[in-house]
Design brief:
Length: about 240
């Protein structure tokens, strides 16, 4: 898909990966509507069904249609399972999974001539990270939603894919700076040798939007971090 002249909607587009995606889409000639809780073209809480339905309708009516949706809005948190309040579990799933579901459903309904949807999941969705059960399960479920949606929506000319970032320097990831040695370990375990940037992920999202024969895929964009194995025998020889 050539995004030039296309109408694109980006949730969580006011900062981080969403802002980088919106900027790159505009640079490529797309007409972009940013949805976020603040500093956005449309102020919207993606986990609120009424607000999200109204937001997609507003974008569709203002721009005369919808061709592209990037479902990026997400929240994070840290809590061991035994200490986790149910409200904290619900807070994460409300945005990361419920919000993405509502956004995907409404955007797909608005794509009368087909289109492309990319959701932002995470490598945390297929890794086992202590203290992040709520976040990891929300992203794992989102990946499955993407695959199932690709099967259902393909006959309508709508492609659905996901990008799964690893360690990425964004406001969501910033709290990990408080963990001693965390960033240094992440860099050591990343074959490409650095923390990712929002622009890195945006480039992958836009590239995936252009692949007309790809749907139902979850592409890890993590510099190879998810290739790390704690039982790698080579580590004993280094």
């Amino acid at each position: 898909m050539d995004v030039s002249g296309r109408v694109a909607l980006v949730t969580g587009g006011a900062s981080g990966i969403g802002a980088a995606v919106a900027a790159l889409l505009k640079e490529a000639g797309a007409r972009v509507a940013v949805l976020d809780l603040h500093d956005a073209d449309v102020v919207c809480d993606v986990g609120d069904e009424g607000q999200m339905v109204a937001a997609v309708q507003q974008v569709t009516e203002s721009f005369g249609g919808l061709d592209v949706a990037v479902l990026n809005a997400g929240v994070g948190g840290f809590s061991p399972i035994l200490d986790m309040a149910t409200e904290e579990w619900d807070r994460i799933h409300r945005v990361n999974l419920r919000g993405a579901f509502i956004g995907l459903r409404e955007c797909a309904k608005a794509m009368e001539s087909g289109g492309a949807i990319v959701a932002i999941t995470s490598v945390s969705g297929f890794l086992s990270e202590r203290g992040m059960a709520h976040y990891s399960t929300s992203k794992a479920a989102l990946a499955q939603l993407v695959r199932t949606s690709a099967r259902e929506l393909g006959p309508l000319g709508i492609r659905v894919n996901a990008v799964a970032p690893g360690t990425t320097d964004t406001p969501l990831f910033a709290p990990t700076r408080q963990l001693p040695g965390y960033w240094e370990r992440a860099v050591r375990r990343t074959p490409l040798g650095r923390i990712g940037t929002a622009d890195d992920i945006a480039q992958v999202v836009v590239a995936l939007l252009g692949l007309e024969w790809v749907t139902g895929q979850v592409l890890a964009a993590d510099g190879g971090l998810s290739l790390y194995s704690p039982i790698d025998p080579m580590e004993s020889l280094e």
